[in-house]
Each structure stands twice: as structure tokens, then as C-alpha cells.
Amino acid sequence: MSGGDNGVYNRAVVHAHTAFFMEGNRWIMKAFLILEDGTVFEGISIGSKKEVISEIVFNTSMTGYLEVLTDPSYAGQAVVMTYPLIGNYGITPDMESKKAWPDGYIVRELSRLPSNFRCEGTIQDFLKGQDIPGIAGIDTRALTKILREKGTMNGMITVNENYDLKEILPLLRGYRVGDVVSKATCRESYVLRGDGPKVALMDYGAKNNIAKSLNKRGCEVTVYPASTPAADIISSKPDGIMLSNGPGDPKTCGAIIEEVGKLYETDIPIFAICLGHQLMALANGAKTYKLKYGHRGGNHPVKDLSNNRVYISSQNHGYAVDALTLDSAVAKEAFVNVNDGTNEGFSYVRKNIFTVQFHPEACPGPQDSGYLFDRFMDMMKGAR
Predict the structure, then answer these.
(1) Under 8 Å between Cβ of 123 and 65
(2) d(CA 268, CA 237)
(3) Which of 248, 247, 196 shows the shortest CA–CA distance to 218?
(4) Mind listing the pLDDT tens digit for each residue in 176-226?
(5) Which residues, including other chains, have CB under 8 Å from residue 189's CB and lie 6 or more apart?
(6) Catalytic residue among 274, 295, 300, 344
(7) Which of 259, 295, 359, 363 is catalytic?
(8) Do residue 45 and residue 146 come from a single domain?
(9) Residue that is last in its domain, among 174, 193, 213
(10) Is residue 63 in a domain?
(11) What is the pairing mode between strands 190-192 and 270-273?
(12) CA separation, residue 157 to residues 168, 277, 318 (Å)
């Protein structure tokens, strides 16, 4: 291995080998991960053979890889799993949406023989069926250290061993995630029936378990496309409004932010998660910024400032709200990240509105903060 023993291969060595090699009685195709700083990793191809350029991010979850793959918040990104063995329980009925969203998938070792009584197939076949290219057999620890030290960067997954760095690097540096909310949202509204409060869920790239968490508490949940005007939501007379998670840079959602501002002006209880949290803050004059490498995984500690208790949370975001830019007469900081002190939520003054940056619906992740759905239920009951 050239370039030291950290999994980074020298270009000349890579070029000297053929694109295929034998492993046991199978032919394996090589694949390459090229980062915008010129670092190259060599591994084996998994999933689709197509070439893709994307933003490379890492997730520290030790389980729940299927929920990660089907989380719409990963639209426009390729995901590195830091846990070394992926796919050992195969594909199970735990999808957070109807399809997989990442542009690419990067793992240390992919299990060949999944074992679980709920297993419905292998992750290899799933990636092929979803047309997602991936790479296995690289040192994901070394890759993650690069992303932590240098920050999130763009990269390419390719099976073309004759790649030209001079041509590729400008393409990588010019890549932008762009408008991905419009891709991740539902195309038309739908309803999960219930006998309790009526909740309007704005789908900016919502995970299924947000609606399920409300529905299992008795709520009738109507899920709306991201482009739905605020007037339509208000005229439906919901007991509460949920703003969902979603992908991309929140500042690119100008039209949506304007509609969120109109929802803020009502007296309807509102609970917002992740992207929804950021959009509500932007609608009230706050600013957001990109984190160096984001928070993605099921082990992030957050402190609830109302009781000084710390909860372990599931997170998936690359942007954060600058709490100092939101007028304290509008909202008070309600949660902070214990690791780096970044904002994790607000409680809005004289409004039935609270927002969180993390995922109380988890999937994957701990259920510690599920009580926030109960808080939302109490808000809706109190507003009736």
C-alpha cells in the first residue's frame, strides 16, 4: 500500500493494476474514491457502477444503516459509515422513506452473508436496485480523520482506473448540493388517520417515523409537499403544525422560509425538527452557518436548558443556527450541544412554538428525547 498504511493509494500504483481481480471464485471490480484535495482511496465496487460526484459526509451510528440510507436528509451527499461492519443483518422493513437517498455509500467492510430473522435481502442487492454506487474495503477511519481535520469536502466514486486528476479536481471543487428539498418532498398530500388532534406535517424531506410518532399518539397526520402555501395549511384548521427535517443548505429555501414566516404569525402550535428548526429561525431573522463536518449519528449529547438534563440524541445535519443572531425577544435558546456548544433548539417567546436541531423520532438512534412529542401533544390540547 502506497502513501503510508492509512488506506490512501498512490496514483501510480493504482494505475499499474487492472480494474478486476479474483477474490475466491469471484471477480471483483476495483473502485476509487477521489477527494477534492487530491487524496485517493482504492477499494472494491459495491452497488451501481455509475460514476458520481457528491459531498462526502460521515455517520457514526453503530446500527441502523438502512434508516440512514433511506433518510431524505442525505440527498446530495455520499455517506461514510464509521462503524466498520455494515450489512450484517441485511435489509429489513425499517425504511424511513420509499427509496434510498445518498448519492454514494462508503464502508470499511460489507457483510456478504446477512443473518437476521427479518432479513429480506442483502445490502449489495439493495444498492444495485437503488442505483447507488459505493466503495468498500477502504480505511474509513483514515477517511473520517481527513474529513474532521480538513472539513467536509466533495468527492467522486468511480470504477474508471484511468481517471485524470487534473480533469476531475476542478469538477469536485465546483460541485454544489443545490436545491434538494424539491427532490426529497412528497408530490401530493396524504393522510394517516387518527382520532386525536389534527396535525399538518410539512414534508421538507421527512422521515417516516415523524408521522408515525404523532400517529401512534392518536394524531391524524396530513403530510403536505414542501411547496404548499401557508394559506392552505391555515385554512385546513389543524390543531398543530410539524416542520420536518430535510436536506441541503437552509438558506437556499427562500420561498419556503417566507411561508414558514406566515405560519409563525398564527397562534397554531408548531413543533419543528432539524431543517424545520433552521427554517423557523431564518424566518425570524436569524442566520445559519455550515459546520466544519456536521453532526451525523446516534450518539450526540444535548442539554435541555429547562431542566439541565442531558439526552443522547440522533442527529443528521451539516448546518446550524447562530443563536446570537436570533433576537432574545423572539426566542430563547432551549437546547445546546454538549460537545461543541452549538445551538440545538429554541423556545419561542409568547408563541406555542418550539424547535430542535436533533431527531426526537430517532430511527436510528436512542429514544431519549421522545418526550418532546408528548410536549407537542400537551401544547395542542392546551390551545384547544
Answers:
(1) yes
(2) 9
(3) 196
(4) 999 999 999 999 999 999 999 999 999 999 999 999 999 999 999 999 999
(5) 222, 223, 224, 225, 228
(6) 274
(7) 359
(8) yes
(9) 174
(10) yes
(11) unpaired
(12) 11, 32, 21
Higher pLDDT: 344 or 370? It is 344
Q: Which cell goes with 311?
A: 439526552
Is-contact 72 247, C-beta < 8 A? yes
Domain of 321 in residue numbering reads as 181-383
Report CA torsion sign: 135, 139, 141, 145.
Answer: negative
CA distance 337 to 186: 31
Q: How far is CA 274 from the centre of its chain?
A: 9
Instruction: Show which of 144, 174, 204 is a domain's final residue.
Output: 174
55 belongs to the catalytic site = no
Minimal CA–CA distance to 246: which of 290, 184, 292? Answer: 184
Name the 3-class secondary structure at 105: strand
Active site residue 300: no
Which of 42, 219, 361, 363 is labelled catalytic?
Answer: 361
Dihedral sign (CA 372, 377, 381, 383): positive
Is residue 109 annotated as a catalytic residue, yes or no? Answer: no
User: Exposed e or buried b for every residue in 352-376, given b needs 16+ CB within 10 A?
Assistant: bbbbbbbbbbbbbbbebbeebbeeb
Give the type of residue at 1.
M
140-156 pLDDT per residue, tens: 999 999 999 999 999 99
- Quote the number of domains for the chain: 2
Residue 3 forms part of a structural domain: no
